[in-house]
Design a protein that fits this description.
Distance between the termini: 42 Å
Radius of gyration: 25 Å
Helix content: 40-55%
Number of strands: 9
Number of helices: 12
Length: 289
């Protein structure tokens, strides 16, 4: 077998724009032959995938999966809404979800296991796509919810929630808690999870708003405490008014069903991605150049 040198890897990389590790693997598979390695990359769909890697993928699907004691929510992105309706893309998302469950939601392991499948699907469909993120929860009882489902189990919002305690009570309230999370988008599960700096920031914002100006210190303390309690009621799942009975908090409703919250995960498709604003004139100039 011919030696796979850095020079050969660089030559293949310049020829194909594929990643360094993909180039190395291609050369090893083809006895150091650059042309054969280039053809191999094309056959695997890697070259075509690499050429589209610069495109921003903000559409796609969010999906949820669960088994005994573990639940995952997964986001797989594509460039356009149209691709989300493609059965090949949906199959890719389902395969990734199954692998995520098998590998207990470990992102690096899942990404490594499915990257060739992603590249092949990119080559088939012709759009950039990527496994963006995976979240996992563990508990005795796992419940899921998908909002705006395009197909069963896949949509724009995905939720998994884990509960401990009585199974009958959990089965009754668990799906409702998952829907509550989709509607209210809590940041934290419990007060204990709240970053103290976030609490201090809320206090500072409230005081500097002028709401406490001229008030006695004891009154200010009560006002600030009330504002922080309101903050908890907005951002902490256990402290939120339950969407189906706002007279009770989620924590109270869970207690009534002899259950406790172990954790949750919530994904909104494309949240936090800044989509590139392409300049059409620049794009045309590049094409003509």
């Amino acid at each position: 077998m011919a030696e796979v040198t850095a020079k050969l890897i660089q030559e293949l990389r310049e020829k194909t724009s594929a990643g360094m590790m993909d180039c190395k693997k291609a050369l090893m598979e083809n006895d150091g032959d650059v042309q054969a390695a280039s053809d191999w990359l094309r056959q695997k769909g890697i070259v075509k995938a690499a050429s589209k890697a610069g495109r921003v993928a903000t559409s796609g699907l969010v999906t949820v999966v669960k088994d005994e004691g573990c639940g995952c929510v997964i986001e797989v992105n594509a460039e356009t809404d149209f691709v989300a309706k493609n059965e090949k893309f949906q199959k890719l998302v389902a395969d990734i979800a199954a692998k995520a469950l098998e590998l207990k939601g470990e992102f690096d392991a899942v990404h490594s296991a499915v990257k060739d499948d992603i590249a092949a699907t990119i080559a088939t469909i012709g759009e950039n796509m990527s496994l963006r993120r995976i979240a996992k929860v563990h508990g005795t009882h796992i419940y899921t919810y998908v909002h705006n489902a395009l197909v069963p189990g896949m949509g724009q919002i995905g939720v998994v929630v884990a509960l401990d305690g009585d199974k009958a009570g959990a089965d009754e309230i668990g799906p409702k808690i998952a829907m509550h999370i989709a509607a209210n988008k809590p940041e934290f599960a419990t007060i204990a999870e709240v970053d103290p700096t976030a609490v201090e920031r809320e206090k500072k914002i409230f005081v500097e708003s002028g709401a406490t100006d001229g008030k006695p210190e004891a009154v200010v303390e009560k006002m600030v405490a009330g504002r922080i309690q309101k903050y908890y009621g907005e951002s902490v799942l256990e402290e939120q008014p339950f969407v189906m009975d706002p007279s009770k908090t989620v924590k109270q409703v869970l207690a009534e069903h002899n259950t406790t919250l172990k954790g949750f995960a919530y994904y909104l498709l494309g949240e936090g991605i800044e989509k590139k604003d392409d300049n059409l004139a620049d794009e045309v100039a590049k094409m003509l150049g």
